[in-house]
Amino acid sequence: MVAKIFVITYSTYGHINKVAESIVKGLEKTGAEAHRFQVAETLSDEVLAKMHAPPKADIPVITPDQLPEADGYLFGIPTRYGTAPAQFKAFLDSTGGLWSKQALAGKPAGFFFSTGSQHGGQESTVLTTLPFLAHHGMLYVPLGYPHPNLFTNEEVVGGSAWGSGTVANSDGTRMPSQKELELAEFHGEKFAAIATKLSQIVANDKV
C-alpha cells in the first residue's frame, strides 16, 4: 500500500517552500504519494506589500475537510517568537469539526521549520504545536539524530531531533543550504517509511 502524505506549509518569503521541495523528494523516493498544500493567508495584500513579501507560490490552499484523505502529515512552519505564526494557528483552530469526530486519530505527523537565528525557536515551535496533535489523538514522529548533518559544527545547519529546518537570518537573506536540504530529503524519506508501515497496519485492521 502506498501512503498518501500531505505536506502543508506556510511561507512568507519562500524558505519553508524550499525545504518542502526536498521533503517531497524524500517522500517520493520511498514511493509515497506526496501532495503539497499551503494554509490560507490572513494578512491583506497591502500589509504583505509593505513587508516586501513575494507573490504566493502556486500551491493549493488546504481546507480542514481535506485532511482525513491523507495517511500522514508533514507541517512546514516558520517561527514567530518561538511559536507558529497566526496563519498556521488559524488553520489548526479550524479543525474543530474533525476533532469532534476524531477523524485524525492515529495518523502520524511531523514538522519542519525555519527561524531567523540558530536559537530563534526551532524546537519551541514544534513543542508549542504538539497540543494540536495530542487533542486529535495524532502520533508525533520526531526526526531524532539519524543523520550526520545534525552533528556538524563546520557551518550553521537548521534542524534538530524535532525535525528538519533552516536558518533564514533575521533579514531573510539566507536561503536553505545544501546540508539543510539534504537533511530535509532524508526527513521526508524517514517519515514516509513510518507512515507507510502505519497505513498498512490500519488497512489490515479493516480487512
TrEMBL record:
GO CC annotations on file: membrane
Checking InterPro entries in the record gives: Flavodoxin/NO_synth, Flavoprotein-like_sf, Flavoprotein_WrbA-like, FMN_Rdtase-like_dom
Coiled coil stretches, renumbered: none
Q: In what residue span(s) does the Flavodoxin-like domain sit?
A: 5-191
Picking any one GO molecular function of the record gives: NAD(P)H dehydrogenase (quinone) activity
- A Pfam family (short name) is FMN_red
Give the PANTHER family listed for this entry.
FLAVODOXIN-RELATED PROTEIN WRBA-RELATED, FLAVOPROTEIN-LIKE PROTEIN YCP4-RELATED
Family the entry assigns: Belongs to the WrbA family.
Any idea what this protein is called?
Flavodoxin-like domain-containing protein
What organism is recorded for this protein?
Coemansia spiralis
Organism classification: Eukaryota, Fungi, Fungi incertae sedis, Zoopagomycota, Kickxellomycotina
